[in-house]
UniProtKB/TrEMBL annotation:
Residues 4-119 form the NADPH-dependent FMN reductase-like domain. This is NADPH-dependent FMN reductase. It comes from Brachybacterium hainanense. Keywords: Oxidoreductase. One of its GO terms (molecular function) is oxidoreductase activity. Its EC number is 1.-.-.-.
Length: 183
């Protein structure tokens, strides 16, 4: 079964990302899901001796473990809040620890916040493009429209349909990537 990582990027104590990740996971049938909580991954600020793009061997246990975890995925969904118009520092740090692992990885970006998280989705999409990530879709959940500040979800049907369609596209891209690896 293809592996799907659902990354909860907020580490705040009062976050609602877990609720959004659970909603995403409920729609992801037929995947072996790895729920990746950056709060428990707890990567320190980048502390490797060489930049990941260099391809140099990683020197810390946490960097090796993080690279293995993301490298083992066939696809990913990044769930992120929009904090002050951007993504949390924990997500930027986690992304920056890797390079090759993000390249061509089929990925959906799911943002939540005011204005349907449009600002964070734009910025995160641009960031992931630098890594050559295969971003197949961006889904924005609006506070007051799809979820409450406490994390209660009442997602609009058109947003739910967009997620289902995006998951279908994600599966196609993951299957093609798996097929290319096997061939």
């Amino acid at each position: 079964m293809a592996s799907l990582g659902i990354i909860v990027s907020s580490t705040r104590p009062n976050r609602i990302g877990e609720h959004v990740a659970r909603w995403v996971g409920e729609h992801a049938d037929g995947w072996d899901i790895d729920l990746i909580d950056l709060r428990t991954v707890a990567l320190p600020h980048f502390d490797e001796l060489a930049p990941p793009k260099s391809g140099a061997e990683r020197t810390t246990d946490h960097a090796r473990a993080w690279a293995e975890r993301i490298g083992a995925l066939d696809a990913a969904i990044i769930v992120t809040p929009q904090y002050n118009g951007s993504y949390p520092g924990s997500l930027k740090n986690a992304v920056d620890y890797l390079y090759a692992e993000w390249e061509n990885l089929p990925t959906i970006l799911v943002g939540y916040g005011w204005g349907e998280a449009a600002d964070v989705l734009e910025l995160l999409g641009r960031l992931m493009a630098r890594f050559g990530t295969d971003v197949v879709s961006e889904i924005g959940l609006g506070l007051g429209q799809d979820l409450s500040p406490a994390g209660e979800l009442d997602v609009r049907p058109e947003v739910e349909l967009a997620l289902v369609e995006a998951l279908g596209t994600l599966r196609e891209h993951a299957d093609a990537r798996i097929g290319a690896t096997v061939a």
